[in-house]
Amino acid sequence: MDPYIDVEALDPDHPLTELKLQNYKSSCYSQTKKSLELDSLPSKIILQTTDACNLNCPMCQIPWDQKGRHMSTTTFTKAVEQLFDTLVELHPSNLGEPMASPWFNVLCETMREKGVLLDLTTNGTMLNSKRIQWILPIARDIKVSFDGATKDTFDRIRVNGRFEKVCENTRNLSKQLEKYGKRSILSLQMTLMQSNFKELPSLVDLAHQLGADRVKAYHMFSFSEEMNNESLMPILEEYTPVLMEALDRGKELGIQMECAEPVASDSDPMPGWNVCHLPWHESWIDIDGSVFACHSHGGESFGNIHHSPFREIWNSHKYQAIRKGFFDKSPVWNCDGCGMTCKKSTEHQPVPVDRQSFLYSSEPEQVSNVRWSGRMKQFDLGDLYD
Questions:
Q1: What is each CA distance from 320 to 87, 131, 334, in whole angstroms?
Q2: Sign of the C-alpha dihedral, residues 46, 50, 53, 59?
Q3: DSSP H helix total and E strand total for the chain
């Protein structure tokens, strides 16, 4: 029921695996039965352990001089006590470099002890042999950010990074994953911009050379007037032939592809209706313990694990209203118009794109000044489901 949770990757011999499977099945059953209040807990969380980063990428939502916060061990312990026994996967530090956390090793060890799988996005600069050994026992989905397939583009966008070093670290990680024999997938990931999108086919070649399994590429959300000039939204039609070339290259080399969809024309069919899996299976705990429903929270917390048990927040009126909105085909909150309400027939089906939602605006009605992205409304669905 949740395409981003791989329960088959769980260790069958771990003492908590059966409990995790029961919890996941309960969530699936609740979604099927259109339950608003759940007995189960989320099987996957984003745990924002840090927003610190050693790179200064221009498209990042958080200015470099405002980074550096770390989750306290008290908040981490609360999350462990309330969620880890039933948790299948954890994604640390959605906006920051996870390995910059001063207790990243503690996180990895706790996940190993609790049988939790790692979904990691990293800039690759800190992937030394020691840290690779920390993640090997728990690795399930590892994404290394490559915002360029050439040294010049990579080094210009990923400021303070070094293309050769990240390539070396990624190649070493691939070899170690293969040697360890774990069920895991390694991806190169690109944020699509005007100055790099034509390198997408070359990124497929690079993934093959480094031993990666997949290439992921998604449109940039702009958080400044300056970065609007890097957005593909004004020239979105130019992206389609580049994507087609990359998809052909991926098929030739055996590289999986998960990329932003081509923009639909008037003759293309609209996506069907989809019930988002997140309100039954996934949640987000921020650095201070605040609970957010998803990436599109727009800064609105549903509670805090220091003030209320997570289960109480998980079954709060706000969460239940979101679940009900999906069953009524009348999404509420930030779910209204979000791309997660679309059911595509193929991975790269042409879709109508709400171009403005990717661009920064100083207008007060535009959500552009929150710390986390509240603008995941990727598709312009109009009145399709009214």
A1: 21, 40, 14
A2: positive
A3: 12, 12
Contact residues for 340 (Cβ-Cβ < 8 A; gap 6+): 274, 276, 278, 294, 376
What would the two tokens of residue 289 be?
A: 């313990």
Mean pLDDT of the chain: 91
Residue 217 has pLDDT above 90, yes or no: yes
At residue 191 the predicted structure's pLDDT band, cuts being 50, 70 and 90, is very high
State both tokens at 365. 């009605």
pLDDT tier at 205 (50, 70, 90 boundaries)?
very high
CA distance 328 to 43: 24
- Laid out side by side, the sheet with 89-92 consists of 256-259, 214-219, 185-192, 139-145, 117-122, 89-92, 44-47, 282-285, 290-292, 303-304
Residue 295: what pLDDT?
81
Q: pLDDT digits over 129-182, tens only?
A: 999 999 999 999 999 999 999 999 999 999 999 999 999 999 999 999 999 986
User: With contact defined as beta carbons under 8 Å apart, do 239 and 264 qualify?
Assistant: no
Rounded Cα distance between 165 and 346, Å, is 36
Token reading at 73 = 């061990």
Rounded CA separation 130/116 (Å): 20
With 0-12 / 13-18 / 19 or more C-beta atoms within 10 angstroms meaning exposed / middle / buried, residue 14 is: middle
